[in-house]
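Chain A, query sequence.
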Amino acid sequence: MNRLSEQVALITGAASGMGQVAARMFAAEGAALVLTDIEPNGLEQTATQIRDLGGMVLAVRSDVTRESDARDAVAAALEHFGKLTVLYNNAGIMIEVDHSVLDTSPEVWDRVQAVNLKGTYLMCKHAIPAIIAAGGGSVINVASFVAQVGCTVPQDSYTASKGGVIALTKSLAAQFGRQGVRANAICPGPIETPLLTEWLLTDPEAKAIRLARIPLGRFGRPEDVGYLAVYLASSESSWMTGAELNVDGGITAYYF
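Chain A, predicted structure.
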């Protein structure tokens, strides 16, 4: 039996990058999937990949910052598959003009918070009751290593939003553990997504600086995060909740 054959998982931000790769990995392990994203073309591309693999998938265009969209995505999962057991809050943004608190505009600050933190809250608000009704399951929130360390080249709204995701995850674990809901946060280091790759390919110095801080000597791959997500979605992690788990090549352990 595949590791996720009994699971119905809702994955946000599934149109590209880590979300797209995670969707394929979940499907390969037998999960039925509800995929959401604000970008319809990439979302349908991911859904087509899953169907071509013989997977069960429903694609729902959705903006995580809108409560009605969060509610509708969960309702679609229940209508199509009859239950929801896993929520994977992967959707997030990292805006180039998000800098220090000294020079980040309120508009940029609010936009990052809306997607990264408010979006996580809204999805949890509507998915957790469905997970409880299914007899329990797993909430997996994507945070970041930047929420655990300081940086002299800051992205302060992004960092604050991911710190909020970690704190929220721990609160969810405490609130809903007795009802069978586990909540854990994944904290990736720099991952080779299209956004990161495009930026670093045009700035070799920035790439070298960041690689020098990673003991394992490479950037992460989306699969590195996906493997942990599959574990957290499966029954193998049934006694695990409230954790913040680093997948960062050792970057948070590096001092000099």
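The radius of gyration is 17 Å. Residues 106-133 form the longest helix (28 residues).
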